[in-house]
Amino acid sequence: MLDEQHIIAKVLAGETAAFRGLVDTYQQTVFLFACNMLRRTQDAEDLTQEVFVAAFQNLRTFDPARARFSTWLMTIARNRCCSQLKRRSLNTPGDVDSADRQPGPEEAASYHEARQRLSAALESLPLEQRTAFVLAEIQELPHAEIGVIEGIELGTVKSRVSRARERLREALKAWQPVHQAASTRPQDSVPRRPT
């Protein structure tokens, strides 16, 4: 198991190459979060790099008594995503990258429509609900950790996630694809954290 404290101590002592161990451990988690928040692969890749640069530059401010390294890192990722989303024009819908699979024509149309609807539904959520939902349902973080990342009380986390679920349910319930295969359910189009 990765000894984060040991790696952080080495980096702070000048062994900057040791930081690679932290990047290797958390890069996928940060990237998936950014993908689900920004809905554009290139933006998520760029943001992931920014997060690790910021973490490296501010590593001295990390306090293990206040939070785990992963929580601190996800706080940086969340803040960067929120800043980027606020800069985006509200009138320009985000493009969602398509999956790297080759479905048949009917399945492809249904899959594409599901992704578009899910993307639009996620983007329509208020930013606070969106970040809480992505952290809880897609990143599968405990509500207590989300509270630390978001800087809010546990009850507020639960409320935001619940409201986000309800809004997504409402936004997606009218959609009934004609030819929906088991592998093209809307939730399958959301990048998830590997198990």
List keywords for this structure.
globular, 195 residues, mainly alpha
Describe what you observe in this structure.
There is one protein chain. The radius of gyration is 18 Å and the shape is globular. Residues 94-102 and 178-189 have low confidence and may be disordered. Helix 2 (19-38) runs parallel beside helix 4. It is mainly α. Helices cover 64% and strands 0% of the residues.
Topology:
Blueprint (H helix, E strand, L loop, with lengths): L3 H9 L6 H20 L2 H17 L11 H19 L17 H20 L2 H12 L4 H8 L3 H20 L22
Helix pairs in contact: 2-3, 2-4, 3-4, 4-7, 5-8, 6-8, 7-8
Write a concise synopsis of the structure shown.
The chain is mainly alpha-helical and 195 residues long.
Which stretches are low in confidence, meaning pLDDT under 50 for 5 or more residues running?
94-102, 178-189
What is the total tally of β strands?
0
Strand content: under 5%
Number of helices: 8
> Helicity range of the residues?
55-70%
Structural class: mainly alpha
Radius of gyration: 18 Å
User: How does the overall form come out from the CA principal axes?
Assistant: globular
H-E order = HHHHHHHH
Main β-sheet: number of strands, strand sense, barrel status?
Answer: none
- Would you tell me the overall average pLDDT? 82
End-to-end distance: 17 Å
